[in-house]
């Protein structure tokens, strides 16, 4: 009998071992030590009780919107929720743009909402690949319909919503229609107001951070100043770093697109961004000696003795910085980097010329360090 | 009963052996004789400085002799600050580090990075961060024979039959008390499929990699050629090792193309061939004199290059009330770009837009798909006739 028990025990052991070995597990990260997770605040949801029953929808829209809502509200697997959203998008694109806008606005006015469980993800051309809530999905699709209706309703959302992700998509909808910069002032003011919303800065959602792309799209010294103003303001180190990283990336993109905006911000206020010396050094390392105004700034900057060590060290180690970051964004497209071709040779030639200039004497060590690095990186081993 | 016990023991040992053989893919040093052969000869050790410290990772020459694929956290530190002094040593394999003469300097990089990449944690260790954990670095001179990358690695990665292999430089292989040193390692080829975790972030169970292997190529066997389907982003050693990867996609392709542009940037006269595809739709129609009603015409782009370098648009409508017109295009993804806003045009002359520049957000994206143009009258004016639509044309240049 004991042998039978032993055998049964052995088989249980085998099955347990097999289950343990085959059970899917999640990885431990490598390379970097894990850090404390950031608490992410979900946007406040509206009440699902509402006037939905009183609203008439066209059959196709109603069916697809209802299906997407149902999938999201019952926590269906992510691929099913994405498929539901794509089916609704397909239906919206099939409808006449004015009709589609009317349907979406009617549905949005019901206040019906649910989270999708998906992380906010921007897709191609600034559309949303993964909406965080049902309403975020609807607002994304509204921006793909009739411009006048989308503009009016998005402006309404910007003044009423408590959701940072909804705000981001509404802001994007306005920015998409910003032909010839006609809404630049409005977008600058609204972006500034977004940064002032209580709680959004210290507990940023992904949508809130992606909306920083609106600042890049609008550009100008005013947006540069807005972006710099959020760097280092959070009392929470983790939250601060996330927001800082987004603001620094936006400034980097602004510098590549519109270096004059950054130079103007600095020339208006020499202390601009001096509280973040590494970020400032990184930005200035993107200047181009071949451009007149930038060349003049560089010539002066390199001889300054008051630049903090962290800033100048970063500058000398990366100038001219030819590293970039790319991703899908809400409004802007990728930077046109072809104009940086030939910059190393031009920089080496300019440095050699400066090294013969007695007024550049304070900068000799910096100039030689930059030149030697560039020669090394451009010479085959 | 003894027979039953023996049978049980045999079943147990057989099962464990089968598990060991079928479901665990350890990483072993690559035979020295293979280091000069594809794909091992294209894989190398990456050294970089981040936050004042030196780190190591892995990379491989891919797509172009001056370009390497690696992971994003090898070139960006916490907070998005750039790593500096990127050094590469191709096909290195020794207990000792290469030393300065064994490395060559990389000029720069292009990393996949969004504003919200760091949203789940302040560092790069999260599903959302791993889903963008990819970078392409480049040198100003040839680094070695490039491997071929799949434009979309997902089908091969999730296949149950495709052979896969992860190569790189794991620093520690603790489960066998072995130290990885600076030896190039590779998992044995395996067929187990990866599972999607978030976006381009996929994982496979029980594959040994580990710290230092980050950025190493994830190879898949297509026909008789090993091709790159992704890069390692995270992983652990031993029986319960799990390997996470970024799978190649259009973003990776675009970053690689830009890296090639920068890699050869000091070479005068180097240009890339482009092709222009023009599609038109001249199907007659009527733009009704009714506010908010739009005429739609679709333009289907089927074959073009890898990614867009410019988009221009032409449109012709015969009307006397152009001041009231709105026209816009919608990309295959849904992006709206206004072409004409009410008040932009004067009344009394036909609408004739000729190759209006509309590249903007479409630059460096995939050109294929159905584009739509919408034309509408924004004011219903009594007695005003409807306007005949005469034609639309979309010209997409891509490379």
DSSP helical segment count of chain A: 18
Radius of gyration of chain A: 27 Å
- Total DSSP E strands of chain A: 3
Question: Helicity level of chain A, as a percent range?
Answer: 55-70%
The level of helicity of chain B is 10-25%
- Give the rounded overall mean pLDDT of chain A: 85
Contiguous uncertain segments of 5+ residues of chain A: 20-56
Number of strands of chain B: 26
Compute the number of helices of chain B.
4
Order of helices and strands of chain B: HEEEEEEEHEHEEEEEEEEEHEEEEEEEEE
Profile the largest sheet of chain B: 8 strands, antiparallel
How large a portion of the residues of chain A is in β-strands, by DSSP E?
under 5%
Structural class of chain A: mainly alpha
* Mean of residue pLDDT values of chain B: 85
Arrangement of strands in the largest sheet of chain A: 1-2
Rough outline of chain A: globular
Task: Please give the largest β-sheet of chain A.
Answer: 2 strands, antiparallel
Structural features, described:
- The complex is a heterodimer of chains A (381) and B (399).
- Chain A is mainly α and 381 residues long.
- Chain A is 59% helix and 2% strand.
- Chain A is built from 18 helices and three strands.
- Chain A has helices at 2-22, 59-73, 78-94, 97-109, 134-142, 147-160, 164-176, 184-196, 206-210, 212-218, 221-229, 237-257, 259-268, 277-284, 292-303, 309-318, 343-354, 364-377, and strands at 121-122, 128-130, 324-326.
- Chain A has a two-stranded antiparallel ribbon with strand order 1-2.
- In chain A, helix 8 packs antiparallel against helix 10 (212-218) and helix 17 runs antiparallel to helix 18.
- The termini of chain A are far apart.
- Chain B is mostly beta strands and 399 residues long.
- Chain B has an eight-stranded antiparallel beta sheet with strand order 1-12-9-15-16-17-14-13. Chain B has a seven-stranded antiparallel beta sheet with strand order 6-5-2-3-4-8-7, with helices on one face.
- Chain B starts with a helix and ends with a strand.
- The relative contact order of chain B is 0.14.
- The model of chain B is unreliable at 16-22 (pLDDT under 50).
- The chains are: A mainly alpha (381), B mainly beta (399).
- At the A-B interface, helix 1, strand 1, helix 6, helix 9 and helix 12 of A face helix 1, strand 6, strand 7, strand 17 and helix 4 of B.
